[in-house]
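One chain given next:
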Amino acid sequence: MDIHCITEERVLLGESPVFSAEENCVYWIDILGPSLLRTDLNNAETMSWVLPSAPGMIALRGFAGLMVALEDGLYSFNPPTRKLEKLAPFEEVHTENRANDGKCDIAGRLWLGTINKTDSTQSTGGFYRFDSRLAATKIGSDYRIPNGLAWSPDDEIMYHTDSRGGAVYSYDYDAVTGERSGEKEFFKFDREKSGSVDGAAMDIEGGYWTVLYGGGKLIRLLPDGTLDKEIPLPVSQPTMPAFGGPEMKTLFITTAAQNLSEQELAEQP
């Protein structure tokens, strides 16, 4: 496996890589920037746009531009014009929360978690589902760091985790109604030994790929919940993998530089 850095851009907390086949680029975010970035895979040039608050995730919109989850709601963003337009607010009880990991299912619903923006040990986070009209339904409460969203290739299983707990959970999923049920523990990581499970991606064989923040590893789990691959990375704080490239066989992984020493920063790309 060839592992290399595709940009010289250094960020504090990179997250949410999204591959655009149309533009042959990767959009991603720096939560602490706060900024949105675009790395052109043709020439490795990276552009960035400053955002008004911390972004939690991004997704490509079907007709144009991006959807960006900021601290107070969902926004559309048009990179060429830099136009940022609010689409829907967050109806959060906890005003100290911000958006975190989120993805769209096969039907276009957005699933999104929230996290305490000043103290990630607090269980104030929630888990939401937004329908096509961007109406929100609260699915879960008492999360610390909701993460690791993915769906099986047949869209019948949903995966999710709370990074602070270390367990990845699977659910029976109805793609027609958007309902999940039957929570099961899919895999459990020992945070003290391996680091925190973070973002995730799904391959066409049903392999669940995730990264260990603080553990510096890329992990692949089989559909039956057994560990298939454990790949050391040249960075200690990977945050999220995403498939892309001409045949969707390349994994793009965002990383974080926050809390690293000068020596660690020099040693890690």
Summary: The mean pLDDT is 95. Helices lie at 191-194, 262-267.
